[in-house]
Amino acid sequence: MAPIEGKNATMKGIVRASRVLSGWGGWIAAAAMTAGLALVLAEIFARGLFNRTLYITEEYSGYLMCVLTFCSLAYTLREKGHIRMVFLLRALSARGRLRLNFVCHAVGFLFGIGFTGYCFGFFWDSVVSGSQSMQVSETYLAVPQFFMPLGALLLAFQFLGELVRDWLVLRGVEEGETALAEEDLGR
Predict the structure, then answer these.
(1) For residue 7, is pLDDT > 90?
(2) pTM to 2 decimals?
(3) DSSP state, 130?
(4) How far is CA 15 from its chain centroid?
(5) Is 18 in contact with 40 (CB distance < 8 Å)?
(6) Phi, psi (rounded to 5 degrees) for 132
(7) Span 44-96, pLDDT tens digits
(8) Contact at 8 Å (CB) between 87 and 62?
(9) Are 11 and 167 in contact (CB under 8 A)?
(10) How far apart are alpha carbons 66 and 30 in whole angstroms?
(11) Burial of 133 (0-12, 13-18, 19+ CB in 10 A)
C-alpha cells in the first residue's frame, strides 16, 4: 500500500510542479509584454518630443514578442486557453473524453519534447557560431533565442503534468472533471 501512495504523491508533485513552472512562464511573458510596451512608449516619446529614435525599438519588440509567445505557451495550456476542437469530445462518454484527453496530452508531450530539441538546436547554433543581429544593436542572437527552448520545455512539462493528472483521474486517485464543461472549450 505504501509504495502506491508514494507513487501517487510523486505524480501529484509532478502536476503541482508543472503548474508552478507554467506560472513562472506566464510571469516571464507578462514581463516581456510590459517591457515591449515601455519600449514602444519610449520610442513614441522620443520621436514626438525630441524628433529622435531609439533605433532598437522594432528589433527588441520582435525579441520580446518571441519571449512572450514561447513563455506563455505552457501557461495558456494550464489555463485551457488554447483553441480546442470538441466535436469528437461531444460524441464520447465522460470516460471516453478522459481517455481521449490522455492520448492528446501524450501526443502533445511527445511533440513538446521534439519541439524543445529543435528549438535548442536553433539556440545552440547561435551560441556556437556567435551569431549577431545585423541591426545597429548587434545583439547576440543566442540571448533572445534562449527563450525558445525554455518556453518549449515549459510546454512539454505542462503537457506531462496534464498527462499525469489525466492518469490519476482515470485511476480514480484524483477527482477530475468528467463532463465536457464550457471552460474546457477555451476562452
Answers:
(1) no
(2) 0.88
(3) T
(4) 15
(5) no
(6) -125, 155
(7) 999 999 999 999 999 999 999 999 999 999 999 999 998 888 888 888 888 89
(8) no
(9) yes
(10) 12
(11) middle
Residue 182's pLDDT is 41
The DSSP code for 137 is: T
| Dist CA 67 CA 185 (whole Å) | 26
Question: Of 137, 12, 125, nearest to 63 (Cα)?
Answer: 137
Cell of 140: 547576440
Give the C-alpha separation, 139 to 54, whole Å: 15
pLDDT band at 6 (very low <50, low <70, confident <90, very high): confident
How many other C-beta atoms lie within 10 A of the C-beta of residue 163? 24
Give the DSSP H or E segment for 80. none
What gap in Å lies between CA 154 and CA 165, rounded to an integer? 16
144 class by beta-carbon count within 10 Å (0-12 exposed, 13-18 middle, 19+ buried):
buried
**Grid cell of 158 as nine digits:** 505542462
- Counting every residue written for the chain, the total comes to 187
CA angle 160, 149, 103 (to 5 degrees): 25
